[in-house]
Amino acid sequence: MTEPSAFLAACRGETPAHTPVWFMRQAGRSLPEYRKVREGIPMLASCRMPDLVAEITLQPVRRYGVDAAIFFSDIVVPLHAAGIDLDIVPGTGPVIANPIRTQADVDRMPRFDPASVPDIAEAVCLLVKELGPTPLIGFAGAPFTLASYLVEGGPSKEQARTKALMYGQPLVWAALMERLADIAAAYLRVQVDAGAQAVQLFDSWVGTLPLADYERYVQPWSARVLAAVSDVPRIHFGVGTGELLGALGEAGADVVGVDWRVPLDVAAKRVGPGKALQGNLDPAIVFAPWPAVDDAVQRVLHAAEGAEGHIFNLGHGVLPNTDPGVLAEIVATVHAAGRPTAKPSA
Fold first, then answer.
1. Which of 29, 38, 223, 338 lies at 20 to 30 Å from 306 by C-alpha?
2. Structural domain harbouring 164
């Protein structure tokens, strides 16, 4: 008999045999085997090669023994598949050839056809077969973060053009967000229909917004995406979202991802009942001596004791120079901690 998935149990707010753990960006530059198979292959091309996607996704599962795999891709893949002229520039990130800043620009945006990504469905099918009982998490970029790349033309910490459009041209903003919500929903749907057992919606830049503006300009569109995949557990994660945690859950998440800035016991109060939490070890702590890392891991586990389900993760992605051996030791430590505290009774 196959042992139940600790990850899926935690997503449902149940108490699994051990605290499940996986890492955002667990498949990537920190692994020498990843660098070897990706050598000479551009990022966008690598995301459209099913055998390579499957191999890269499986690498951290083999090495670390994590409780879930995250589908190897990039949030701009569905935009590129739709026909938007963009590239992922090494050392920079997504760069958009023709930024979207007017209603005419929105009107010219090509529509995303799920049939344009048969390679994505193929990769998911390959992975589900290879992973066996280990769940596969599909993922997509949230509408706000996708919009920020399209409007800014590339990465931006200030989001100046994005906010100018959002506040100054709310009808154009709504039209853009509707397009992007439909793209993200369709892309997640492709992955779920092919066999992904959970999804994560990444909103990397939304932490630049105050709560009232998030609720007005962003939350309805993220909710539209998450509603499209309500048949699987849904994780919603953003960076710098301490003031938005409750609203992230209200958008339709079953699990709210928490970055390293907010302790999980505080996050549980902000999110409220009925939601599991994911997180939230500081990705930089892994560069400290092991006693400091171990202490930080224990503090995360302790802070999560009152949560209605806890998935151990970093508070953001694995940093490129991370020692894989430290991540392996973190997985072993979390698993050895034993059965997590049962969720509070109603």
1. 223
2. 6-336
Q: How far apart are CA 11 and CA 5, in angstroms?
A: 10
Tokens of 1: 């008999």
> Does the annotation mark 29 as catalytic?
yes
CA dihedral 306, 227, 188, 191 (to 10 degrees): 80
Report how far residue 39's alpha carbon sits from residue 43's, in angstroms, rounded to the nearest whole number.
Answer: 10
Give the C-alpha separation, 233 to 307, whole Å.
17
CATH of the domain at 86: 3.20.20.210
Question: Which tokens in the block code for residue 268?
Answer: 């549980």
In the structure, what pLDDT confidence band is assigned to residue 153 with cuts at 50, 70 and 90?
A: very high
Domain assignment of residue 318, yes or no = yes
Question: Which residue type does 320 have?
Answer: P
Q: Which pTM was predicted?
A: 0.95
Based on the residue annotation, tell me whether 34 is a catalytic residue of this protein: no
Catalytic residue among 34, 67, 101, 149: 149
Residue 64 falls in the annotated catalytic set: no
Number of domains composing the chain: 1
Asked whether the beta carbons of 219 and 255 are under 8 A apart, the reply is no
Three-state DSSP at 188 gives helix
- Is residue 149 annotated as part of the catalytic site, yes or no? yes
What are the tens digits of pLDDT across the range 25-49?
999 889 999 999 999 999 999 999 9
> Residue 148: its pLDDT value, please?
97
Catalytic choice (29, 48, 63, 161): 29
Contact 28, 35 (CB under 8 A): no
In a domain, 233, yes or no: yes
Query: Is residue 188 within 8 Å of 143, Cβ to Cβ?
Result: no
* Distances from the Cα of 139 to the Cα of 73, 155, 237, 262, angstroms: 8, 19, 11, 23
What are 271-297's pLDDT values in tens digits? 999 999 999 999 999 999 999 999 999
- State residue 4's pLDDT score: 81
